[in-house]
Amino acid sequence: MPHPCKNSTDKLVFNIDAALPDIHVQNAGLLTALTAKKFPFLGEVGLSATLVRLDANAMSSPVYAADSSVQLIYVAKGSGRIQVVGINGERALDTKVKAGHLFVVPRFFVASAIADGEGMEYFSMITTTQPVFGEFTGKTSVWGALSPQVLQASLNVAPEFEQLFREKIKKSTILVPPQN
């Protein structure tokens, strides 16, 4: 348990809005991750957090907690669609959310969000101090770990499509702007 602090709001309060984002994609939004490195008190209570601001019609690509943590997500502004998929591949949640809604992403489940026309902002509390998220896009995508042959067999596609798929995935980011 954390020890009480006398007259020390610096240790218990952090302005995440003023923090530099860890990821910023033009016309898509930003993501700010908060761990004990930026806010030491989180380490004392065993938590971390993220703030995601999606621009109008932008998407947060599918991610999952690879470390068995659970996410509690609060929609602070705007609205959009949330999809959560379980480890068996079945959709666990597919719903429209708006400011004030709270939902849980269980351990190892995949979550994705698409903002409506006004954009969406959500805050996530994560039940670990050092979260490990697996991504399906970008340079750290789980797809990159698969050999071309395994990826072809998994997707049941020709070698040319596998190569195109791999190239597109590497160029993507976790925050995706709307398609025109």
Automatic annotation (TrEMBL):
Residues 14-163 form the Cupin type-1 domain. Pfam families: Cupin_1 (PF00190). Keywords: Disulfide bond, Seed storage protein, Storage protein. It comes from the Eukaryota. SUPFAM superfamilies: RmlC-like cupins (SSF51182). GO terms for molecular function: nutrient reservoir activity. Gene3D superfamilies: Jelly Rolls (2.60.120.10). Signal peptide: none annotated. PANTHER family: OS03G0336100 PROTEIN-RELATED (PTHR31189), OS09G0552500 PROTEIN (PTHR31189:SF45). Belongs to the 11S seed storage protein (globulins) family. This is Cupin type-1 domain-containing protein. It comes from Vitis rotundifolia (Muscadine grape).
